[in-house]
Every structure is written in C-alpha cells, then in structure tokens.
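Researcher: Here's a chain I'd like modeled. Treat it as a single chain, no partners, no ligands.
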Amino acid sequence: MTLPAFTDDGGPGPAVVLLHSFLMDGRMFAPQLPALDGFRRITIDERGHGGTPAEGPFDYWDVARDVLAVLDHLGVSRAAVVGTSQGGFVALRLALLAPSRVSCLAVLGTSAAAEDPAVAAGYRAVLDAWVTGGAPPEVLDGVATICFGAFEVGEWKQRWASVAPDQLTWTMTALVDRDAVLDRVPEITCPALVLHGTADLAYPVERAAELAAALPGAAEPVVVEGGAHFLSYTHADEVNPHLARFLKAHA
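Model: Modeled as a single isolated chain. Structure tokens:
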C-alpha cells in the first residue's frame, strides 16, 4: 500500500501521533507543537486530506490501519495518540484494532456514536450542493461556523473551495456513514483524556460525557467554556496545558 503523507520531527521523547479533523490536515496541530516540545511528534494526513488523496471509498477503520502502517514504517512500536473530531474517530478505532500500540489516548470534540440521522441528511445535502455547483460561499460559511465557531479561517475557505468532487464525496461519506463504537469503547483500557467545548456545534457535550464514562482509563471530561468543535486549533491556549500534562504523565 502507499503510505499516507506524514511528518516526523524525530524528537527524543515518546512518540505522539496527532490526527486531524475533517477538512483539515496535519498542519492543524501547529498550535500544539511548542507545547509538546521534547516528544517525537508525528502528524499524518488522513485519506482525502492534505498530501494523502483517497483512491476510492474508505472508512475510519481503513484510516486507522493507515496510521499503523506509518508507525510500522517508522519503527514505532507504541505511541500516544491525539485526535480532534475525525481524528478522534480514527484514534478510537486504532486503540481497538491494536491496543498494545497505544500508550494513551486523548480525544477532542469527538464522539463514539454514529452520526445523528438528521445531521447526516444535512451533510449529504451540503455534499450534493458542493459537488454539483462548487462550493457556494454560504455553504463554506456554514461549514466553517460548525467547525471553527467565530475563529477566522479565510485561508481554509480558499483551500477547500476547489477540492475535487470525488475526494469530498469519499471523505464526507466516511464521516456520515461511520459505525458506532460506543459499545466497544470499554475495551480501550489505556489512560484516556476527553476534552470538549461548550460551543461545539457538531457534537454536544453529552457525547464527551458518554465517551469518558465508557472509557475505563478516563476521568470526567475537560470542558472548555466557549470552545468550538475544532477545539485544539481554535482554543489551543486552553487545551495545551491539559494535553501536555496528560502526555507527560502517560506517553
């Protein structure tokens, strides 16, 4: 198989894999890199994002296997895994597929449930509009509000306005058709950290509470007041101390 695009800074400390959100790429974690100085920081562009084109339909179990392939390629036997939103979907599945490879798990703005059917229908309508007519400004504005809240993302809009229709179709389908893993989450016994924003427009804080309750190694979720869905990106100042403290203790 072709490896996904990745970066590896070769740091001296434990490996930390950073998994990005839908419609982002590994650059999403630039705000975390200084706070994680000393770790071996690895970012991976997931299928259909950044430097990793999707070659056909896929699901998040496939993406989790891609992450394992990168770790194998790098000779990393065990890593801490951090995932925001979609990255959290992948991180949970990675921990289920290969528990011995995950030292600890931190997820932000994510969910172990399947997509709500009404929300999924709305996303499919957005996909249809985007694929058939390009990315109307109002569609991009709406998606940006869901993901970033009031955070300024002009460059992001420019980047995604011209995404190839097949890439968008495959990535959106993986998102809205994903399976629920909440009933399997108790199998993940490594230390876990769950963070969520009160202003997350994609998933309510209740998703974080049910996930933290199901993870044997998690305490109560860390709730960031006013935090948006792409929490690590938009609210790095609030997130980074929790993330650094957790990884220093458990990675």
